[in-house]
Amino acid sequence: MLKALLRRKPKPAAPIDTATLPEGLRVYAIGDIHGRRDLLDQLLDQIMADDRSRGPADTHVVFLGDLMDRGPDSAGVIDRAIELSETLGGNAHFLMGNHEEVYLAAAEGDEKLVRFFCKIGGRETILSYDISPREYNELSMEELAQRLPSLLPARHLDFVRSFKDRIVMGDYAFVHAGIRPGKNIEEQRPKDLRWIREDFLFDESPHDKLIVHGHSITDDVEECPNRIGIDTGAYMSGMLTALCLEGRERWYLKTGS
Q: Is residue 26 part of a domain?
Protein backbone atom coordinates (compact mmCIF):
# COMPACT_ATOMS: atom_id res chain seq x y z
CA MET A 1 0.00 0.00 0.00
CA LEU A 2 2.71 2.48 1.02
CA LYS A 3 4.76 1.52 -2.04
CA ALA A 4 1.77 2.24 -4.30
CA LEU A 5 1.19 5.62 -2.66
CA LEU A 6 4.83 6.61 -3.04
CA ARG A 7 5.15 5.47 -6.64
CA ARG A 8 6.10 8.33 -8.90
CA LYS A 9 3.23 9.41 -11.12
CA PRO A 10 3.91 9.82 -14.85
CA LYS A 11 4.65 13.32 -16.00
CA PRO A 12 2.25 14.44 -18.75
CA ALA A 13 3.67 14.05 -22.25
CA ALA A 14 4.06 16.94 -24.63
CA PRO A 15 0.75 17.55 -26.44
CA ILE A 16 0.51 15.76 -29.76
CA ASP A 17 1.13 18.91 -31.81
CA THR A 18 4.22 19.92 -29.81
CA ALA A 19 5.83 16.49 -29.28
CA THR A 20 9.31 16.53 -30.73
CA LEU A 21 12.36 14.47 -31.57
CA PRO A 22 15.96 15.53 -30.92
CA GLU A 23 17.50 17.67 -33.66
CA GLY A 24 18.87 15.70 -36.59
CA LEU A 25 16.77 12.59 -35.90
CA ARG A 26 14.22 11.24 -38.39
CA VAL A 27 11.99 8.25 -37.60
CA TYR A 28 9.73 6.06 -39.72
CA ALA A 29 7.45 3.80 -37.61
CA ILE A 30 5.77 0.95 -39.50
CA GLY A 31 2.47 -0.58 -38.35
CA ASP A 32 1.42 -4.23 -38.21
CA ILE A 33 2.48 -6.07 -41.39
CA HIS A 34 0.94 -9.50 -40.76
CA GLY A 35 2.63 -11.44 -43.52
CA ARG A 36 2.20 -8.90 -46.34
CA ARG A 37 5.71 -8.90 -47.80
CA ASP A 38 4.37 -7.22 -50.93
CA LEU A 39 3.11 -4.22 -48.96
CA LEU A 40 6.26 -4.04 -46.86
CA ASP A 41 8.42 -3.83 -49.99
CA GLN A 42 6.19 -1.06 -51.37
CA LEU A 43 6.28 0.92 -48.14
CA LEU A 44 10.04 0.58 -47.73
CA ASP A 45 10.47 1.94 -51.26
CA GLN A 46 8.33 4.93 -50.26
CA ILE A 47 10.31 5.42 -47.07
CA MET A 48 13.65 5.34 -48.87
CA ALA A 49 12.46 7.82 -51.49
CA ASP A 50 10.97 10.12 -48.84
CA ASP A 51 14.14 9.96 -46.74
CA ARG A 52 16.33 10.86 -49.73
CA SER A 53 14.10 13.78 -50.67
CA ARG A 54 14.39 15.35 -47.21
CA GLY A 55 18.16 15.47 -47.07
CA PRO A 56 20.66 14.08 -44.56
CA ALA A 57 19.48 12.93 -41.12
CA ASP A 58 20.06 10.24 -38.55
CA THR A 59 17.26 8.04 -39.89
CA HIS A 60 15.72 5.22 -37.87
CA VAL A 61 13.05 2.69 -38.85
CA VAL A 62 10.85 1.23 -36.10
CA PHE A 63 8.69 -1.87 -36.68
CA LEU A 64 5.80 -1.90 -34.19
CA GLY A 65 5.45 -5.70 -34.16
CA ASP A 66 3.15 -8.37 -35.61
CA LEU A 67 5.31 -9.04 -38.65
CA MET A 68 3.72 -12.48 -39.06
CA ASP A 69 0.39 -14.37 -39.23
CA ARG A 70 -2.79 -13.91 -41.30
CA GLY A 71 -1.10 -12.72 -44.51
CA PRO A 72 0.47 -15.07 -47.08
CA ASP A 73 4.23 -14.48 -46.66
CA SER A 74 5.34 -14.20 -43.05
CA ALA A 75 8.62 -15.97 -43.81
CA GLY A 76 9.30 -13.41 -46.53
CA VAL A 77 8.53 -10.52 -44.17
CA ILE A 78 11.00 -11.86 -41.62
CA ASP A 79 13.64 -12.32 -44.35
CA ARG A 80 13.13 -8.69 -45.45
CA ALA A 81 13.31 -7.47 -41.86
CA ILE A 82 16.58 -9.37 -41.30
CA GLU A 83 17.96 -7.88 -44.50
CA LEU A 84 17.02 -4.38 -43.32
CA SER A 85 18.55 -4.98 -39.89
CA GLU A 86 21.81 -5.96 -41.57
CA THR A 87 21.72 -2.86 -43.79
CA LEU A 88 20.74 -0.31 -41.14
CA GLY A 89 22.35 -1.92 -38.13
CA GLY A 90 21.36 -0.15 -34.92
CA ASN A 91 19.05 2.22 -36.83
CA ALA A 92 16.52 -0.56 -37.40
CA HIS A 93 14.34 -1.36 -34.38
CA PHE A 94 11.89 -4.24 -33.94
CA LEU A 95 9.22 -4.46 -31.25
CA MET A 96 7.81 -7.68 -29.82
CA GLY A 97 4.11 -7.96 -30.60
CA ASN A 98 1.62 -10.49 -29.28
CA HIS A 99 1.94 -12.50 -32.50
CA GLU A 100 5.73 -12.68 -32.13
CA GLU A 101 5.23 -13.89 -28.57
CA VAL A 102 2.92 -16.70 -29.68
CA TYR A 103 5.14 -17.57 -32.68
CA LEU A 104 8.11 -18.13 -30.37
CA ALA A 105 6.03 -20.09 -27.86
CA ALA A 106 4.57 -22.36 -30.54
CA ALA A 107 8.06 -23.02 -31.90
CA GLU A 108 8.75 -25.01 -28.73
CA GLY A 109 6.33 -27.69 -29.96
CA ASP A 110 3.67 -27.56 -27.26
CA GLU A 111 0.41 -28.82 -28.82
CA LYS A 112 -1.82 -26.40 -26.90
CA LEU A 113 0.27 -23.40 -27.93
CA VAL A 114 0.46 -24.58 -31.54
CA ARG A 115 -3.33 -24.86 -31.60
CA PHE A 116 -3.66 -21.27 -30.32
CA PHE A 117 -1.03 -20.10 -32.82
CA CYS A 118 -3.02 -21.58 -35.71
CA LYS A 119 -6.23 -20.04 -34.35
CA ILE A 120 -4.83 -16.47 -34.53
CA GLY A 121 -3.35 -16.71 -38.03
CA GLY A 122 -0.39 -19.01 -37.55
CA ARG A 123 -1.65 -21.42 -40.21
CA GLU A 124 -0.70 -18.88 -42.87
CA THR A 125 2.69 -18.38 -41.22
CA ILE A 126 3.40 -22.12 -41.20
CA LEU A 127 2.40 -22.41 -44.87
CA SER A 128 4.92 -19.69 -45.78
CA TYR A 129 7.65 -22.16 -44.82
CA ASP A 130 8.57 -25.48 -46.44
CA ILE A 131 5.26 -27.32 -46.12
CA SER A 132 2.43 -27.68 -48.62
CA PRO A 133 -1.25 -27.01 -47.81
CA ARG A 134 -1.99 -30.68 -48.46
CA GLU A 135 0.72 -31.84 -46.05
CA TYR A 136 -0.45 -29.33 -43.45
CA ASN A 137 -4.05 -30.54 -43.71
CA GLU A 138 -3.03 -34.17 -43.36
CA LEU A 139 -1.18 -33.59 -40.09
CA SER A 140 -2.96 -33.95 -36.76
CA MET A 141 -2.41 -31.11 -34.31
CA GLU A 142 -0.12 -33.39 -32.32
CA GLU A 143 1.92 -34.18 -35.44
CA LEU A 144 2.05 -30.50 -36.42
CA ALA A 145 3.35 -29.59 -32.96
CA GLN A 146 6.09 -32.20 -33.36
CA ARG A 147 6.99 -30.90 -36.81
CA LEU A 148 7.03 -27.18 -36.04
CA PRO A 149 10.36 -26.92 -34.17
CA SER A 150 12.23 -28.24 -37.21
CA LEU A 151 10.12 -26.27 -39.71
CA LEU A 152 10.83 -22.78 -38.38
CA PRO A 153 14.43 -21.73 -39.17
CA ALA A 154 16.73 -20.99 -36.23
CA ARG A 155 17.77 -17.78 -38.00
CA HIS A 156 14.18 -16.52 -37.91
CA LEU A 157 13.61 -17.58 -34.31
CA ASP A 158 16.83 -16.00 -33.08
CA PHE A 159 16.00 -12.77 -34.89
CA VAL A 160 12.50 -12.55 -33.41
CA ARG A 161 13.81 -13.35 -29.93
CA SER A 162 15.96 -10.20 -30.17
CA PHE A 163 12.91 -7.89 -30.46
CA LYS A 164 12.44 -5.20 -27.82
CA ASP A 165 9.37 -4.30 -25.77
CA ARG A 166 9.67 -0.51 -26.12
CA ILE A 167 11.67 2.17 -27.89
CA VAL A 168 11.81 5.74 -26.55
CA MET A 169 12.95 8.66 -28.69
CA GLY A 170 12.43 12.24 -27.61
CA ASP A 171 8.82 12.81 -26.57
CA TYR A 172 7.68 9.55 -28.20
CA ALA A 173 7.47 5.98 -26.91
CA PHE A 174 6.96 3.23 -29.49
CA VAL A 175 5.24 0.04 -28.30
CA HIS A 176 3.18 -2.69 -29.92
CA ALA A 177 -0.20 -2.60 -28.20
CA GLY A 178 -0.14 0.26 -25.70
CA ILE A 179 0.66 0.89 -22.06
CA ARG A 180 -1.03 0.48 -18.69
CA PRO A 181 -2.37 3.97 -17.81
CA GLY A 182 -0.93 5.50 -14.64
CA LYS A 183 2.50 3.90 -14.97
CA ASN A 184 5.68 5.35 -16.42
CA ILE A 185 6.99 3.76 -19.58
CA GLU A 186 9.87 2.15 -17.64
CA GLU A 187 7.38 0.43 -15.29
CA GLN A 188 5.31 -1.24 -18.01
CA ARG A 189 4.93 -5.03 -18.06
CA PRO A 190 5.67 -6.91 -21.31
CA LYS A 191 2.18 -8.43 -21.18
CA ASP A 192 0.55 -4.99 -21.35
CA LEU A 193 2.96 -3.66 -23.97
CA ARG A 194 2.11 -6.62 -26.23
CA TRP A 195 -1.56 -7.34 -25.47
CA ILE A 196 -3.42 -4.42 -23.84
CA ARG A 197 -6.41 -2.99 -25.65
CA GLU A 198 -9.52 -1.35 -24.10
CA ASP A 199 -7.91 -0.14 -20.87
CA PHE A 200 -5.40 1.78 -22.97
CA LEU A 201 -7.52 2.79 -25.95
CA PHE A 202 -10.37 4.28 -23.91
CA ASP A 203 -8.11 6.13 -21.46
CA GLU A 204 -7.75 9.87 -22.14
CA SER A 205 -5.28 10.75 -19.38
CA PRO A 206 -1.83 12.02 -20.37
CA HIS A 207 1.11 9.62 -20.34
CA ASP A 208 4.75 10.44 -19.72
CA LYS A 209 5.38 9.99 -23.47
CA LEU A 210 3.22 10.28 -26.57
CA ILE A 211 2.53 6.61 -27.35
CA VAL A 212 2.86 5.29 -30.91
CA HIS A 213 1.31 1.85 -31.29
CA GLY A 214 -0.27 -0.76 -33.55
CA HIS A 215 -2.26 -3.87 -32.49
CA SER A 216 -5.77 -2.37 -32.68
CA ILE A 217 -7.05 -2.03 -36.25
CA THR A 218 -8.65 1.21 -37.42
CA ASP A 219 -9.80 2.28 -40.89
CA ASP A 220 -7.12 4.98 -40.92
CA VAL A 221 -4.55 6.52 -38.60
CA GLU A 222 -6.00 7.31 -35.18
CA GLU A 223 -4.56 10.47 -33.61
CA CYS A 224 -5.48 11.21 -29.99
CA PRO A 225 -3.97 13.68 -27.52
CA ASN A 226 -2.04 10.91 -25.76
CA ARG A 227 -1.43 8.33 -28.51
CA ILE A 228 -1.19 7.62 -32.25
CA GLY A 229 -2.44 4.27 -33.59
CA ILE A 230 -1.21 3.13 -37.00
CA ASP A 231 -2.51 -0.43 -37.43
CA THR A 232 -4.63 0.03 -40.56
CA GLY A 233 -5.28 -3.70 -41.06
CA ALA A 234 -2.76 -4.21 -43.86
CA TYR A 235 -3.40 -7.94 -44.29
CA MET A 236 -7.04 -7.33 -45.28
CA SER A 237 -7.17 -3.64 -46.30
CA GLY A 238 -4.00 -3.43 -48.37
CA MET A 239 -3.07 -0.28 -46.42
CA LEU A 240 0.23 -0.55 -44.56
CA THR A 241 1.02 2.71 -42.78
CA ALA A 242 4.20 4.44 -41.62
CA LEU A 243 4.25 7.37 -39.22
CA CYS A 244 7.08 9.73 -40.11
CA LEU A 245 8.62 12.09 -37.57
CA GLU A 246 11.27 14.78 -37.56
CA GLY A 247 11.50 17.60 -35.01
CA ARG A 248 7.86 18.63 -34.50
CA GLU A 249 6.84 17.51 -38.00
CA ARG A 250 4.54 14.53 -38.46
CA TRP A 251 3.45 12.96 -41.76
CA TYR A 252 2.35 9.57 -43.09
CA LEU A 253 3.20 7.18 -45.89
CA LYS A 254 0.75 4.46 -46.91
CA THR A 255 0.31 1.69 -49.44
CA GLY A 256 -2.88 1.30 -51.42
CA SER A 257 -3.89 4.94 -51.02
A: no
